[in-house]
Specification:
Keywords: Activator, ATP-binding, Chromosome, Cytoplasm, Hydrolase, Kinase, Nucleotide-binding, Nucleus, Phosphoprotein, Serine/threonine-protein kinase, Transcription, Transcription regulation, Transferase, tRNA processing. Its EC number is 2.7.11.1. One of its GO terms (biological process) is tRNA threonylcarbamoyladenosine metabolic process. Pfam families: Kdo (PF06293). The chain is of the alpha+beta class. It has two domains: 77 residues, Phosphorylase Kinase, domain 1 (2-Layer Sandwich), CATH 3.30.200.20; 135 residues, Transferase(Phosphotransferase) domain 1 (Transferase(Phosphotransferase), domain 1). Strands 1-2-3-5-4 form a five-stranded antiparallel beta sheet, with helices on one face. Strands 6-8-9 form a three-stranded antiparallel beta sheet. The longest helix is centred in the first third of the chain and has 24 residues.
Amino acid sequence: MSVEILKQGAEGRLYLGEFKGEPCLIKERFVKKYRHPDLDTQITRQRIKAEAKAANRCQAAGILAPRILHTDLNTHKLYMEYFGSAKTAKQFIQETVTESAEPEAVKQQLQILCTRVGGIIGKMHANNIIHGDLTTSNILINPTAEDYDVIFIDFGLSHYSQATEDKGVDLYVLERALLSTHSEQPYLFDLMLAAYRKECGKDEDAVLAKFEEVRARGRKRTMIG
């Protein structure tokens, strides 16, 4: 089976390959030379299992995520569904901004996306799924016959937690990522948060209070350096 390298990062490589005749993405985690080999194997296997489990939990909750086709703990590889026509939300937002000269038209179009994304994150948290790396690079926009699906990917830092602290941190990571990547559209997070509130469940007030606390800690660290 031939494979094509799509991306290489600090944690591993992404390949385009095939599993049982189906095109798939293969995520391979690197061996970390600075760790004891036995410890590295243990940590890597735990993270692969956690990533597969989080994707499966999302699907069980009605949240779109890649189907996990196979896990190979010996070679540190995860085989998952490939969305060949999809683009990242980062690309989608940038193209929307570039293709329209009217700021209000851009905002109206992005509001639709933000409402969907915020609602899905709220649903994740209502099901105690913490993504861990909420950025627009980890959200796919996959075209359908009439519209598009929003699919969350890369659950390498995800875990299951009922703690409001973890949910607040997840929201803070999202806010910082949006402000960093899409600084010219500072309204994106507020639009997502409005949709989040409707879906995040009975812990809404506690989670948002914790988010404000985490945000305040982040600002203090930035001021102090």
